[in-house]
Amino acid sequence: MRVLAVDSATGVAGVAVAEDDRLIAEFFLNINKAHSQRLMPMVAQTLQEAVLELGDLDGLAVTIGPGSFTGLRIGLATVKGLSLTTGLPLVGVPTLDVLARNGMGWSGLVCPVLNARRQEVYTCLYRAAGGKIERLSGYLAVSPQLLGDILAPGDEPVLLLGDGVEVCSKILVDRLGSKLCVAHAATLLPRAAQAAFIGLERLANGESDSLHSLSPLYVRQSEAELKWAAKNQACKG
Fold it and tell me: Quick check: is 53 in a domain?
């Protein structure tokens, strides 16, 4: 089975093709610029380098958040368009699940963090052991202080990774001390390859998402939605 995955949930843009347990090709950009004009050329170039066409694929995967509200919409629109024109099944993959897979070689807790702005991070807690990873919590938007409270109990080592490291690493180092390890730059950010492998697993199990109902996993409202809600509430008052 062969899957193409697209990731534009953060400042990183990525496209990858994987077949069974083999990564065939991956295009990765970390230049923190708008993804709208880059994703489709990246898809085309990745397929070209892999000597594949859309008709050679068995499915599609896309990161659905949490992450950048604009980036999520761009990624979903791109993959939904491909699914609509080709009839290929698609699966949505939570961004934190994708990021956590970078820590599959770790032994202990894995804590991916994405910068959620407003002095918060998107996070979720996982446990890695024996080359496998298990999700332990729901997807959250929390302050670095609260995350420290969550991680402080116990003696398990904690692997921290993601673009939210800059937001919370100082506080977590103070709280967790030597049991905290920050991922190397090579594994710090989400990779479309990991989204492709999750997509392969789900499709192999007969799972797929509806083209029409698949939507972003926001975890919390966007700033525009919050402003609208506040204005609407003020009008009611």
Answer: yes
Mark whether 84 and 123 lie in a shared domain.
no
- pLDDT tens, 101-144? 999 999 999 999 999 999 999 999 999 999 999 999 999 999 99
**Alpha-carbon distance 120 to 143, whole Å?**
4
In tens, the pLDDT along 166-192 reads: 999 999 999 999 999 999 999 999 999
Q: How many whole angstroms separate alpha carbon 35 and alpha carbon 74?
A: 7
Cα–chain-centroid distance for residue 5? 11
Please report, for the domain that includes residue 150, its CATH number. Answer: 3.30.420.40
- Give me the helices (H) in the chain, please: 39-49, 69-86, 95-100, 144-151, 165-176, 192-204, 223-236
Instruction: Report pTM.
Output: 0.92
DSSP state of 153: S
Range of the domain at 127: 97-187
Q: Cα angle at 227 between 224 and 229, to 5 degrees?
A: 110
Count: domains in the chain:
2
pLDDT attached to residue 227: 52
Q: According to the model, what pLDDT value does residue 233 have?
A: 45
